[in-house]
Design goal:
The termini are far apart. A hairpin with a 2-residue loop joins strand 66 and strand 67. Strands 16, 17, 18, 19, 20, 21 and 24 form a seven-stranded mixed sheet that branches. By secondary structure, the protein is an alpha+beta fold.
């Protein structure tokens, strides 16, 4: 990093050579932070406080500050006046601490003088955030957990030996967490090393901080203890009942909040809350809760804290509490309690068998509390004010049946629980089915009862229901929280569910502690940022709450004080958008693989980099661990992998190497830097060798990383010991196959230029001896291929020796373990015998002896394999194996032993329970398999006989037949017997037909049938099965293809997978199996998934050698393997957003929309790309582009191309820029534009359109990528083209007018020469025609668009009638009516001219008319005359005659 431009030569010399000035310690303080241990760094010099410039402020400097102030560890050192600009001098410009100094004075630093005189300002003041000396860790929040103190290097737990309540009081007060409500011991330490603090604290309870309490060293430096001290603090620990200024067993309820006694509001106070208060004071039980003005003094503030007690709690602080949105409490409306006075007082017995009279307004304050022990609660609804209704009676929680359940009943429940009004009365076990008794049925509350069990009903415990009819409620005080975003789970618009509606949250004055509380509550990490730069959000919704001010004592947003609920708490511009830390993603790019490259972080939709200032291997270690890329090999600087783009998110990163995420390391702060992209940081992680192109990471072509790219290793002189080293390094067991002659992938045929000469014992390939290939070119016939397997070593053990019979043992990770017999069959046994050179399997007897530890892998051999590792294997969900239930084999002993011939022509007797272990293996060579079903336990049934695989016909095929197949293959029970070639038609022979198995046969070919090879079927009738051990895998998501809830198909049902203790290897195998890349992440921040389903399997622990999830060890299959909160949601590295906004396939029209306009056909243009909606920049935006958009949406012609975000700025990406259309494209995707996502625009330049709004149904265009076409020059817009066309038409019209005037004159002269030859009627008609022509010239409507008369088709057809028609050269001219001329249908017969035998010809010989049959061939036909013209056409047409419109004129 270059030195700051303000760094003087003198300052540099002082920085390098400076020493302590004056030999005195600088007095230090942190100012304007949330507590003593965070804030702006200030030093005192010459009696005046001044600041420190942040230019060279580092984590080591901050660590010394925290140590000097006894404030624990440095967890941040923000600059740029993060805690506000200071006042007075800037005393220090540079410090250079090593991090081990006791005080800042011990560090090298610049001269102490006022640097304001050197043009430095307070907007560069340095800050520090320290952890504090004490903390509570591992609890529900910062106010509960194990007590730990900071030693200067690490957090050390405090022992429970002699740990006192006064010490706990000091800790709670120091942390701002109220007072201790619980102090526990005997709690196991969180850390495995069991270290404890070597001192005992002897606080008196009044000390301001734990560090100033007296301490006593433990004898011998070791404190006696039985575990770690645990403390729980609460701000609601002190409560009292006040009457006339004295505390007793009745009166106004008051609570000490932040050192001040405040009355509680009565608006949500219930009898259950009152009962807890009475019990806490040892005042018996609550008799009543009278309301009204009581003892609060004028001007006192009433707290709006709302408690939701069930009534059984011992302390009020144990009850759920809500503060958010509390309404202002009217003066004097305070909560009050009258207690019975002692716990032994006899109270009247509750008579719940008699309900309150209908219409009774029995309220809690008038109803005395009785000795009934019943309690009410709502469960499985996500909070105390929504869920399934349950009542505790006689020690059992039970439910209410939903018969006649309605809002009146729900109102009683909500009021009884202090949860406001009822919004919904749910039935049909909406919140899940309960258990235990069903206490009530057919409730008929009036809505005014004080307790739900006082409502009329069928009777206590009387019902005719099941738990699938359990009733539930949703009350108005039910709260829920979410983030709304199209493409993020931990970033978005913050919304709260209140009063039955989702609404936004206002951002004023939301601080970091509030944002952190929100992110933690949503499972999105411990920190986040408030984004105030986003455009206005679309749509309308309530703005529910403003003024949220969370405190450290709050454990959720609901406990944070705020303004009252209000539908419009703020303007839409103030809605909160939050980005939590866990929404960020990390990647390495441009390094040739996923484990090397430039470090980039995704935040708020943008990938950015890290500056290399102070970048070292500790920082790289965090990156490699976070990405699951092993150890850090190098931390690169100076844009070693090329310069990045986008933001620079972090600078001065100073990791310790143990952080879980790189953004949790100390740094200058998010987006605080003074770098450019020439200083981007990079990482190289381990991973020198890999196997690629195989079924998984343990098979494939051998490749090594050259530092730039992965390069294949040649098969020339590639040895088995080298393969053994590779398999061991990759954790893949042992090499079982080494092949060559595999074509090299790269077209340039490059291979690694060295030969590896491993001996087989080396820990890694990179340390093996190497020999350069002669001339730098290795002789080879291809790339080396290696297959590794963990199942290579197998043996049969009997009496401690390995031989050809005994129980089956396998070497797993260096330990011999017996196989379980639960899925062991003769086919598996035959493979073992063949592998050991022991002939074939004779039988598989169950044995009680065997290893104490069983391996639960299940093999699915066909019997023809040479080695057990070649068989499909399943380990997932394997059941626990009982001791002694060990797989065993008796082999024939050699390959040549004569075995009895299998008699398959005779089926086993019906009802015979022929089991495999009792049936000797015979010389039958038949084998069985299932194909095309996606696994070894589902598919089309095929049998190998006489060298040919054939099928079974589905005639008579049922579950009994399928049971035999599934059991024979070790695939469990049959779930489905499929027919009609469900898994596709097979080929070859059809071996069996009309099977009639009993279900107990040992082999399917031993079942009764029509006879071997006899059938009357075709392959479209091939039979198949689905067995219970058939497995399938999928991800369930609405908008992602490679991210979602992980589900497995087992026992015929899809169910979820549990995430504990799923690690990176397991996630990678899952992603690889689903074709979603080689890596992924487990998302634990998603909310609870809706609906119910089996949770099939937990405790999945995949190993690198496993090629699929089915091979991974796990817990046994179980319907409820974990809670719904532990269902796994996985995001794979190559996850891709869905191609369409909806789940179904879509067209280009559905990927285009208009937003923000006043109709469906106007608004801001938005396009769907890469999984999200984005906008279009208005650069080059014109009417041509608008026309394409309008036509694509079926909105008619474009009226206007709108620019400059006239419909409001959008949000998200700006997907298109410099769009250039011709105007006739069928889709915006066909127009030329810049590449997707590349623009230099802001949302203030978003483009929009106004369309005519006349919707038309456009043919769908196929969704796809938009080809880049050559751009149309900008001046050829649609408007310009129209102007050119209209100008040309006007010019043609002028020519026509001049031509026609000349022609008319010529006609009149020609006609006058025929006056003697023509009849009088002809002269009259010609005179009439010429008169009309003259009137036409002078008429104002000539060639105008003003009228639209019917065409000549409406005229009755007259035989041999002659009409004038328009020639082809003037087909753009419109029909113009002759003013004053009536239609032909309205004229008298006398007006129709008589026909002459010879048509009158023009001077050129061209006919002046044509018959209607020629000019108008009819509907749907084209006139040849109109298309081709007439012979002898003079070059101009009688366009003036077409202007006659409907006045068809005939000539003799």
């Amino acid at each position: 990093m270059a030195l700051s431009q303000h760094l003087s030569l003198q300052g540099l010399c002082v920085l390098l050579l400076g020493t302590v000035v004056g030999g005195q310690d600088l007095e230090l303080r942190l100012k304007d932070g949330a507590h003593r241990c965070e804030g702006r760094v200030e030093v005192k010099h010459q009696g005046e406080w001044g600041t420190v410039d942040h230019g060279y402020w580092r984590v080591k400097d901050a660590s010394v500050v925290c140590r000097q102030l006894e404030c624990g560890a440095a967890i941040g050192f923000p600059g740029r006046a993060y805690f506000g600009p200071g006042l007075g001098p800037i005393w220090l410009l540079h410090t250079s601490c090593e991090g081990t100094e006791s005080t800042v004075s011990d560090c090298r630093h610049s001269d102490i003088r006022d640097y304001r005189n050197d043009s430095y300002s307070h907007d560069r003041d340095a800050g520090v955030v320290c952890s504090g000396f004490a903390r509570l860790a591992g609890g529900d929040g910062p106010c509960s957990g194990q007590v730990e103190v900071y030693s200067g290097e690490a957090w050390i737990p405090v022992s429970d030996g002699n740990f006192t309540l006064p010490t706990a009081q000091v800790i709670c007060a120091e942390l701002g967490c109220g007072k201790p409500v619980s102090v526990l011991g005997h709690v196991p330490f969180r850390e495995s090393d069991g270290r404890v603090w070597a001192e005992e604290f002897r606080c008196e309870g009044e000390e301001p901080e734990l560090r100033v309490c007296p301490r006593v060293p433990c004898p011998g430096g070791t404190c006696h203890h039985s575990g770690a001290a645990q403390v729980a603090c609460s701000a609601y620990s002190e409560v009292r009942l006040m009457t006339n200024g004295s505390s007793q067993c009745e009166g106004q309820v008051e609570m000490n909040i932040s050192g001040r006694w405040r009355a509680l509001c009565a608006s949500h106070w219930s009898l259950a809350n009152a009962n807890v208060v009475c019990r806490q004071f040892d005042c018996g039980v609550a008799v009543s809760t009278p309301r009204g003005p009581h003892f609060v003094e004028e001007g006192d503030q009433i707290s709006t804290v709302r408690f939701h007690c069930s009534g059984s709690e011992s302390f009020l602080w144990s009850c759920p509490v809500t503060v958010l949105g509390g309404p202002d409490c009217s003066h004097g409306n305070t909560a009050s309690v009258i207690c019975s006075g002692n716990q032994t007082q006899l109270l009247p017995q509750c008579n719940d068998s008699v309900s309150e009279p209908a219409g009774s307004a029995a309220s809690e304050e008038s109803a005395p509390y009785c000795s009934d022990s019943r309690q009410l609660r709502l469960v499985d609804g996500g909070g105390p004010c929504a869920g399934r209704v349950e009542i505790l009676d006689q020690g059992s929680w039970g439910t209410i049946c939903d018969d006649r359940w309605d809002l009146d009943d729900a109102r009683v429940v909500c009021r009884q629980l202090g949860c406001g009004e009822a919004l919904n009365a749910t039935g049909s076990a909406h919140f899940g089915a309960g258990s235990g008794p069903i206490w009530m049925d057919d409730l008929n509350c009036t809505g005014k009862e004080s307790h739900v069990w006082r409502c009329p009903s069928r009777g206590w415990g009387q019902h005719d229901c099941r738990h699938k009819q359990d009733a539930g409620v949703i009350c108005s005080e039910f709260l829920a929280l979410r983030m709304v975003s199209e493409d993020h789970q931990c970033a978005g618009w913050l919304e709260v569910f209140y009063n039955g509606t989702w609404g936004s949250v206002c951002r004023n004055p939301m601080e970091d502690i509030t944002v952190s509380m929100i992110c933690r509550q949503l499972g999105c990490g411990d920190s986040g940022t408030l984004n105030s730069s986003l455009a206005l959000r679309e749509g309308s919704r309530p703005q529910w709450v403003d003024g949220i001010r969370c405190q450290r004592t709050d454990t959720s947003l609901w406990q944070c004080p705020s303004d009252p609920w209000n539908c419009t708490s703020c303007s839409p511009e103030e809605e909160a958008y939050i980005s939590c830390a866990d929404s960020r993603q990390l990647r390495l790019v441009d390094g040739g693989g996923p484990c090397a490259g430039r470090v980039e972080i995704l935040d708020q939709g943008s990938w950015g980099t890290i500056c290399d200032d102070r970048w070292d291997v500790d920082d790289a270690r965090v990156v490699c661990r976070q990405l699951g890329c092993g150890e850090a090999l190098d931390a690169t600087t100076s844009s070693y992998f090329g310069a990045g783009s986008g933001p620079i998110w972090l600078d001065e990163v100073s990791c310790r190497g143990e952080e879980s995420q790189v953004w949790r390391c100390p740094s200058w702060g998010w987006r605080q830097h003074n770098c450019d992209h020439q200083e981007d940081a990079g990482v190289i992680c381990s991973g020198f060798v890999r196997l690629t192109g195989g079924d998984g990471p343990c098979s494939g072509r051998v490749e090594v990383h050259s530092g730039e790219a992965w390069t294949p290793v040649s098969d020339g002189n590639f040895t088995l010991p080298t393969a053994q080293v590779i398999c061991a390094e990759l954790g893949c067991g042992k090499a079982v196959s080494v092949l060559g002659h595999e074509p090299v992938r790269e077209s340039d045929d490059r291979v690694w230029t060295e030969e590896f000469r491993c001996e087989g014992e080396e820990p890694e390939l990179r340390v093996c001896p190497r020999v350069p290939c002669p001339g730098g070119t290795c002789q080879h016939s291809g790339a080396a291929q290696v297959v590794c397997s963990v199942y290579t070593e197998v043996r049969l053990m009997k009496n401690g020796t390995s031989q050809c019979e005994g129980w089956v043992e396998m070497n797993i990770s260096g330990q011999w373990r017996a196989l379980c017999a639960s899925h062991w069959n003769l086919a598996n046994a035959n493979v073992v015998c063949r592998q050991l050179g022991c002939g074939v399997a004779v039988s598989t007897p169950n044995r009680a002896e065997g290893s104490d530890q069983h391996w639960k892998a299940r093999f699915h051999c066909s019997g023809a394999e040479s080695f057990l590792w070649q068989c499909p294997v399943t380990a997932l969900g394997g059941p626990d194996c009982s001791h002694g239930n060990t797989a065993s084999v008796i082999c024939s002993g050699n390959h040549t032993q004569v075995l009895p011939q299998c008699n398959n022509s005779v089926s086993e007797q019906a009802g015979s329970a022929a089991l495999e272990e009792s049936a000797p293996y015979c010389s039958d060579s038949r084998q069985l398999r299932l194909v095309d079903g996606g696994g070894p336990c589902a598919g089309r049934v095929e049998i190998l006989d006489q060298g040919s695989w054939g099928t079974i016909c589905d005639d008579g095929w049922d579950l009994d037949d399928a049971h035999v197949v599934c059991r024979q293959l070790g695939c469990g029970q049959a779930l489905n017997a499929t027919g009609s070639a469900h898994f596709g038609a097979g080929s070859g022979p059809i071996w069996m037909d009309d099977l009639n198995c009993t279900g107990k046969e040992s082999h399917v070919w031993r079942c009764p049938s029509r006879g071997w090879g006899r059938h009357d079927c075709r392959h479209k009738e091939d039979a198949g099965v689905i067995c219970s051990e058939f497995l399938a895998l999928r991800m369930v998501s609405e908008d992602q293809q490679c991210a979602g809830w992980l589900e497995v198909f087992y026992n015929g049902t899809w169910g979820s997978v549990c995430r504990s203790p799923m690690d990176d290897v397991t996630v990678s195998i899952i992603c690889s199996q689903l074709g979603c890349g080689d890596s992924g992440s487990l998302n634990t921040s998603v909310g609870l998934r809706e609906g119910s389903r089996p949770r099939w399997v937990d405790l999945i622990q995949c190993r690198k050698m496993d090629t699929s999830l089915w091979q991974c060890p796990s817990g046994p299959w179980k319907y409820s393997s974990c809670s719904p909160k532990e269902e796994a949601y996985i995001s794979c590295a190559e996850r891709s957003p869905k191609n369409c906004p909806a789940a179904a396939p879509c067209t280009d029209r559905e990927k285009l929309r208009l937003r923000g306009g006043d109709s469906a056909c106007s608004g801001r243009v938005e396009v769907w790309h890469s999984g999200s909606w984005g906008t279009v920049c208005d650069d080059s935006w014109s009417l041509a582009e608008a026309e394409v958009v309008c036509q694509q949406l079926g909105c008619g012609p474009a009226l206007e191309a709108v620019r400059a975000a006239a419909f409001g700025p959008g949000n998200g990406s700006i997907w298109l820029d410099e769009v250039r259309c011709g105007g006739r494209e069928s889709s915006l995707w066909d127009c030329a534009a810049e590449p997707w996502g590349q623009s230099d625009c802001k949302h203030e330049e978003d483009a929009g359109v106004r369309c005519s709004g006349v919707r038309k149904t456009a043919p769908p265009t196929a969704a796809g990528s938009r080809p880049v076409l050559s751009p149309l020059p900008g001046f050829f817009s649609l408007a310009g083209v129209l102007c050119l066309i209209l100008g040309a038409l006007l010019f043609l019209v002028l020519i026509v007018l001049v031509t026609q005037v000349l022609r008319w004159r010529a006609e009149r002269r020609a006609l006058s020469s025929y006056e003697d030859a023509l009849a009088e009627a002809v002269y009259e008609e010609l005179d009439y025609l010429v008169t009309q022509k003259e009137g036409l010239l002078g008429s104002p409507g000539f060639l105008s668009d003003g009228e639209d008369n019917n065409d000549s088709r409406s005229t009755p057809e007259v035989p041999d009638q002659k009409t004038y028609a328009l020639g082809e050269d003037y087909d753009d001219a419109e029909e113009v009516p002759v003013l004053g001329a009536p239609p032909a249908s309205q004229r008298s017969e006398e007006e129709v001219l008589p026909k002459k035998e010879d048509e009158m010809m023009s001077q050129t010989g061209s006919p002046l008319n044509v018959s209607r049959g020629e000019a108008d061939p009819g509907e749907g036909e084209e006139s040849p005359w109109l298309l081709q013209g007439e012979t002898g056409d003079p070059g101009y047409d009688d366009a003036e005659l077409s202007a006659l419109g409907t006045s068809t004129v005939t000539l003799p």
